[in-house]
Amino acid sequence: MEDDVEMLTVRLKQDGIKVYFITARSGSHTIREDTLFWLDTNGFQYDDVFHVEDKDDFCKQARIKVMYEDEVNQILSLQKARIDTVIRNQSWNVNLPRDYNHLERKRGRQTRVDNWQEAYNAIKEYLR
Length: 128
Known about the structure:
It is built from 5 helices and 5 strands. The protein is α/β, with parallel strands linked by helices.
């Protein structure tokens, strides 16, 4: 995607939206420090970073309404947990099942995006 990836978080924060990075990467001290260093060095704005295995459970407990995700298993779990998900199109998630039977009302909605502007628009729409 575009080089200005951090602009997504900057714009969301300017709009008063809380931004959390939720990663399934190990929460070891070294990985936590590396993650924070990378985010800060690259200009991302955020409220907190969480290292969890089950993003769906965490989102339900934390009352997080929208996730930005590209990993297939995480997307499917988030959908079942009724968490709206903005999906960054990637080669590894192109075959992700779509909601052909229009059952989204019983599951989290999904929007696929190809750029940061589309991601921003989808997140804002879900938070209305």
